[in-house]
Each structure stands twice: as C-alpha cells, then as structure tokens.
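FAQ: What does the model actually see?

It sees only this:
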Amino acid sequence: MRQFLKKRMWTIVIAVLIVVLIAVLIYILPYLIVEIPPERSEWAYEDVQVTKLNDRGLYGKGVTVGIIDTGIDLSHPELEHVDLIAWRDLINREAEPYDDDGHGTAMAGIIAGSSFGVAPDVSLIVVKAIDPLTGATDTNIYTAIRFCIQEGADIISMSLGRDEMRIEHLTSPWNDDNNLKRVCDEATEKGIFLVAAAGNDGGENDDGEVSVPGVHDKTITVGAVDSDMNIASFSSEGNNDGKVPNILQKTWDPWERHDPDKKPELVGPGVGIVAPTLKGKYSKLDGTSLAVPFVSGGLALIIGDLTQYQHENNSGEADVDKVKNTLMSTSKKLSNQERPHDDNYGYGLFQAYELYKALKE
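And it is asked to produce this:
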C-alpha cells in the first residue's frame, strides 16, 4: 500500500511539473525573449528598393516625419533611439508619449526602427489622434495635420482613414468649406508630402473610393500588395471617373481625377509584415496601413539626400507635383494591373531607388 501511494505521489508531482512547464512556455518564455527580434519581412524592403538606398548610406538624417496614429511606445527596443521632437495627445491629453493600441508603434517601427526601420535616422513628430475603440474623427485628423505643419514636418504619414462616401461628398472629395481639405491644401502649399492609406474595405464590401484623407488630390495614397505582388483582398479601390451629380446642391459636373492624382497613386507591401508592437514584442500584420510607412520612409531617404525637396527648401506645391509626376513614371507596373493607372494598383509598386535617381537628374 505504501509503495502504491508513493508511486501515486510521484505521478502527481510529475503532472504538476508538466503543467508548470507548459505555463512557463506559454506565459513566461515570450517575455524572456521579446528583445530578440524576429526576422523582418525582407521581401518588402527589397521590393520597394529601400534596401538599395540604405546600402548607399541613406537613412533619412535631417528629415522630420509626422506620424498621426495611436501613439508611440518609446520603450520598445526598436524605438529607444528615436529623436522625438514633438508629441501631442488628442485623445487623453497625456503629456508623455504612450500607445494604448500598438498600431502607431508598428508604423513608427517601420519608418524609424533601429533594425526594422526604413529610415532610422529621421526625427519624428507623433500625434495620438486615433482612439482604439472609436477611431479618428475629421477634427482630430485636422488638428493633427496642423500640429505637424507647425512643428516642421517634411512628410506626414497617416495610416488611417474613414469611408469617403457621404451625401455631401457626391460631387467632390470634400466641400470647399471642409476644414480637413483646407489643412491638406495648406500642407501641400508649404511643400509637405502627405502619405495616407487607401483603406481596408476592398472586395465585395468596397464602397468604390479610397479613404479620407487619402481622397485629397495631392496626397500620395497607398494600397497594399502581398509578397507575390497581388493586390490584397482588403485594399480599397479608387473612383477616378466621376460621381453622381448632387442635385440638391445643383452641382452638375461630375468630378473626375487626372494624372498624377488618380487614386490610389501607389501600392506597397501590406500583407504579412513583421513590425514592432507593444511591450517589446513583434507581430505579423496586414493592412494598407502597413504599406504607408514604406512610402513615407522611402521618401524620407530620398529627401534626406536631395535636401532641395525638404519643405524649407522646396517650391511648395510645384515640387509636390513634380514628385508625384515622377512617382507615376518610376513606379513598377505589375502584371495584374491596368496601365497606366489601375483603380486598385494605382500607377504601380513604389520604387524608392528609381524615384531617387529620377529626381537627382
């Protein structure tokens, strides 16, 4: 009997040890290895040619990028080095930078991360304008863009958006009295490059238009492709052939876009992208949001070297137009897209090195 009890006791002990070991593997081990980054999505950096610019010593030094998102976690190993020159919290009015969602940290990591960043030497302006539960309002986006303008941004990166289609928007992206449109116009007139997500309502539920503020004509609006260069199923299409006239406002001319402002302008990597998130961790993410920082960061590499395109030195909207025209001609035409412009693929895949060479000539 004593031998039976002894054997049973050892069985219980072993079972407890197994449970503890499983708990360690599930709950504790991840926290012990969070500072060891996984492999980044190398195809993404190579396919948009940012690797070529990095190999030539271009890392974005001297350029200021504004990020409008959910915030930033500066304690993440990828972001501890970041030169944060301005911060504003439009949601909770906190004085110190934070991120209660992780989305903004991921975008900042792709732009400026020490090993995951396209342009790790840029300075950042970060505005928390997105509430994880309710999203971003037009008022917060407006205020965030204005803050970035005032703080000296060269590029404003917006991995955000709301549906464009509303009754009052049937004949134009925004009415003339729309504050958000006006502040986008102001940024463009000052030679600041706006980069925004096309939106994630693609497929059967697509409303037929890219998101706000990507609808702004001078904004560079970015859709998403996967590693095979196929359009992501969620990537929103643009409407470039005009809209139904608004009878109530007695506006009869259908609105349509012209080159180089057709939407979206570009596509970038947006499926299965490894990026930094909260608490020192990394996640594999999907979305047109992910494609935006590859373009914003790529532009930062270029104007870090071609300083005549930084907002303090450039010719305002004329240089924004010049860059957009060059984007149109240097983008890589993909096998599945219509040419010269496709309502899903835009003018093609962003090519940072080709754009750099063309602007340098």
